[in-house]
Amino acid sequence: MLRSEVKRAQARTAELFAKAGIVLTAEESDRIEVACFGLGQLETQGLELITYVNTDRYCAKDLVLFPRQTCPEHIHPPVNGEPGKMETFRCRWGSVMLYVEGEASPNIQAIVPARSAASYTVFHEIVLLPGEQYTIPPGTKHWFQGGPDGAIVSEFSSTSRDEFDIFTDPDIVRMPVILED
Amino acid sequence: MLRSEVKRAQARTAELFAKAGIVLTAEESDRIEVACFGLGQLETQGLELITYVNTDRYCAKDLVLFPRQTCPEHIHPPVNGEPGKMETFRCRWGSVMLYVEGEASPNIQAIVPARSAASYTVFHEIVLLPGEQYTIPPGTKHWFQGGPDGAIVSEFSSTSRDEFDIFTDPDIVRMPVILED
User: Fold this and answer.
1) Residue B37 in contact with residue B48, Cβ under 8 Å?
2) Is B57 close to A86, i.e. CB distance below 8 A?
3) What integer pLDDT is reported at residue A125 of this predicted model?
4) Complex prediction ipTM
5) Could you tell me if residue A181 is inside a domain?
6) Residue A83 has what DSSP assignment?
7) Which stretch of A103-112, A166-175, B113-122 has the lowest confidence by average pLDDT?
8) How confident is the model over A22-47, as a mean pLDDT?
9) Alpha-helical runs (H) found in B126-175
10) Domain assignment present for A14
11) Which of B19, B20, B68, B90 has its CB surrounded by the most CB atoms within 10 Å?
């Protein structure tokens, strides 16, 4: 991803936060993380987030999904003998469709990203509107997509160790290099 | 505290959340916790909160302080061999003055509640405006007060075990009985 794309996505994310009444400091706005997963199609498969705190006991982030943007399927494995990350997603604005292991829901609302369709394997659907939340147990494959207006989702969790996440799509690189343009 | 007082404080809290664009479900609005600490002066010493999630690994709440309302000084002790609760306060709306152990700040902005003045002993001041946050290490005495407009504060933390909190004021009862009126 080019630095200019990162900057554009950061600005769009900051606008969405402002629209939802979520205030960031200038320092935080500058370090909004733009995850393109090395796939080169941020609008389709990507995620924007701000990490407020990540200690050895807990973590809190606010996530942004642009309209129909998908965070690809992944799992949080155990690390250093600790169970995998446990996370609670709370929809703050917009809507988000979440998919976890379990009985596949008929006629899911999300559009599976065509390029990586084979790497989406769990289809038990939970739709979250503002004020609604869902806790994903450790060791559960999951993916999620923003609704037609996008979404802002608070993520409360145990310690975050993103570098250990296992994605179903083998083409994914969680921390790709950002190229100066 | 009377049931009718609880209901009034819940309604006022729900209004403040709405004003700040924070959406609760109807079920959540009905279980907003109103803590009067058994002191019978909720407006001066009290706290309103909604707990979103509290697992054996992490906890997330949104706290409301009415204008100049104070959450009295307390400490989170170790429980079952685990270090005391660690918590991050993030101001979302209004302003909050937080006091922790350390060098006393000259001319603090808070008004120490007169009735319990002797039970406020730490005066290192941190003022948080929207977007600003502070992490309180385990085993640190602290108290906090809403600014002139009150405050909404997100609390991200390790597991919450409020019943073990130790308050400096011996008159405080963390979980007083609610009387039907």
Assistant:
1) no
2) yes
3) 98
4) 0.96
5) no
6) P
7) A166-175
8) 96
9) none
10) yes
11) B90
pTM of the prediction?
A: 0.96
Instruction: Show which residues on chain A lie within 8 Å of chain B, measured between beta carbons.
Output: 20-25, 28, 52-53, 55, 57-60, 86, 88, 90, 92-93, 130-133, 135, 154, 156-158
Distance of residue A148 Cα from the nearest chain B Cα, in angstroms:
19
Lowest mean pLDDT among B80-84, B159-163, B175-179: B175-179
Residue B52 belongs to domain with CATH number: 2.60.120.10
In a domain, A117, yes or no: yes
Domain annotation covers residue A66: yes
Burial of A22 (0-12, 13-18, 19+ CB in 10 A): buried
What is the percentage of chain A residues whose pLDDT exceeds 70?
100
Range of the domain at B35: 3-161
Residue of B nearest to A60 (CA): B156
- Between the CA atoms of B115, B121, B127 and B130, what dihedral angle is there, to the nearest 10 degrees? -70
Which pLDDT score, from 0 to 100, does residue B175 have?
Answer: 79
Q: Total structural domains in chain B?
A: 1
Is the Cβ pair A58, B135 closer than 8 Å? no
Name the E strands within chain A: 33-35, 47-54, 59-65, 70-75, 87-100, 124-128, 133-136, 142-157, 166-167
State pLDDT tens for residues A115-161. 999 999 999 999 999 999 999 999 999 999 999 999 999 999 999 99
Determine, for residues A131 and B90 on separate chains, whether the beta-carbon distance falls below 8 Å: no
pLDDT above 90 (res B174): no
- Per the CB < 8 Å rule, is B131 touching A21? no
| Chain A residues with beta carbon closer than 8 angstroms to that of B53 | 88, 133, 135, 156
